[in-house]
Specification:
By secondary structure, this protein is mainly β. It contains no helices and 11 strands. The chain has strands spanning about 1-5, 10-15, 20-25, 30-40, 45-50, 55-60, 65-70, 75-80, 90-100, 105-110, 115-119. The strands form 2 sheets. Strands 2, 4, 5, 6, 9, 10 and 11 form a 7-stranded mixed sheet that branches.
Amino acid sequence: QVQLVESGGGSVQAGGSLRLSCAASGTISRINAMGWYRQAPGKQRELVAVISSGRTNYEDSVKGRFTISRDNAENTVYLQMNSLKPEDTAVYYCNADITRFMGVTNKYWGQGTQVTVSS
């Protein structure tokens, strides 16, 4: 069993900051890529940021404002969000590619955390 538990969402005014956390637990052999997606009402889920082997990639609209980081010892990924805009309002989902001790690799999702940015 593998679980991803997110925390840190909430409501903030435009220009503010939030930090999301996502901790993976369970029978984990190795965590490969970890990332954050978001889904706004009426829109498709989109990739926000991903970190793998120390390299990061960001969706264009968040570059320079969001920073993804990872604590491998704690199996945790973070998303620091600065200069938030109303268009960042969405449910944010943590995602991880995890290899379990049986050698099977699957993609796992967190439950989602709401981020609301008011103007």
